[in-house]
Design brief:
Strand content: 15-25%
Number of strands: 10
CATH class: Alpha Beta
Radius of gyration: 18 Å
Largest sheet: 8 strands, parallel, barrel
Number of helices: 12
CATH superfamily: Aldolase class I
CATH topology: TIM Barrel
Strand order of the largest sheet: 1-2-3-6-7-8-9-10
Length: about 280
């Protein structure tokens, strides 16, 4: 009887800490925004922000190297969430000073992530912005990271984005399908993708790859109910969960919002029940 490679066993065990085997879904909170746009409101203190979301018991939290060191104790224990380390950074979303030209840079390596105790790593894949050399260089970097992660047994989450000149994300379904497919073909174990705006078109995105697709939160939505509706609509067409940031930790009770998303992702709950949980009822 053949045995699986040791690295693949490690990858599967780490991935199972993020995407629950019982449901095939994940609730991930992104707290890496300070690297791109500084200390946003409710993110001035990283340990405080992490503690606020960990209280809701998400499956994983996405952090930068510095934030990992500052809040690492909050991940020690058998009942604590998994840790996802951000490998790269960009100034695309910074308004002061306005970036010209925008950059994309490494800030960590997969080996450093393992040494920090991360269960997975995440990186961008920028497609078709500024000029083709940016896309080429980024694709080469993602592919190299994918190979390194395979050797370490470390899951790789890729966040593919097409960016407009003003820093906005392109959410055209055909474009998102291309981005998602490129990310998987380059070696992603999990993909973090923008919502295309309606369940039918997002279904075609999910069906274009054989790996879990998590919905990227992006800018803060108008209300908690709006963000929870995105969760419910995308789960219904095959999404494997979410990676939300500002739509969780900029709310008055981040832990309650995490529990509301968990209600939808892992407990088969409905939108009305999730809205009540988010309101603390």
């Amino acid at each position: 009887m053949a045995t699986e490679p040791m690295w693949d066993l490690g990858r599967r065990r780490r991935l199972a800490r993020i995407v629950r085997p019982a449901t095939g879904r994940a609730v991930v909170v992104a707290l890496d925004h300070g690297l791109f746009i500084g200390p946003l409101p409710q993110l001035e203190s990283v340990p405080t922000a992490v503690a606020g979301v960990v209280a809701g018991r998400p499956d994983a939290v996405q952090l930068t190297p510095g934030a990992t060191l500052a809040a690492g104790d909050l991940f020690c224990g058998t009942d604590r969430p998994a840790m996802i380390l951000r490998l790269d950074a960009t100034n695309l979303w910074r308004s002061k000073p306005k970036p010209h030209p925008a950059y994309h840079a490494r800030v960590a390596t997969p080996l450093e992530a393992v040494r920090l105790g991360a269960d997975a790593v995440v990186c961008f894949l920028f497609v078709g912005y500024e000029d083709d050399t940016v896309e080429r260089d980024n694709l080469e970097r993602v592919s190299a990271w994918a190979a390194e992660c395979r050797g370490l047994g470390l899951p790789l989450i890729v966040e593919p984005l097409a960016i407009t000149p003003d820093g906005g994300a392109v959410r055209d379904p055909e474009v998102v399908r291309l981005l998602v497919r490129m990310a998987w073909e380059a070696g992603a174990d999990v993909i973090k993708a923008d919502y295309t705006g309606d369940p039918a078109s997002f279904c075609t995105v999910v069906e274009s790859v054989p790996v879990p697709v998590l919905v990227r939160g992006g800018p803060r939505m108008d209300s908690v109910e709006d963000s929870l509706r995105v969760v419910a609509d995308t789960l219904a067409v095959g999404a494997a969960g979410v990676v939300f940031g500002r739509n969780i930790w900029q709310q008055p009770d981040p832990a309650a919002v995490v529990r509301a998303i968990d209600h939808l992702c892992h407990r088969g709950g409905d939108l009305a029940g999730a809205v009540r949980l988010a309101a603390g009822r």
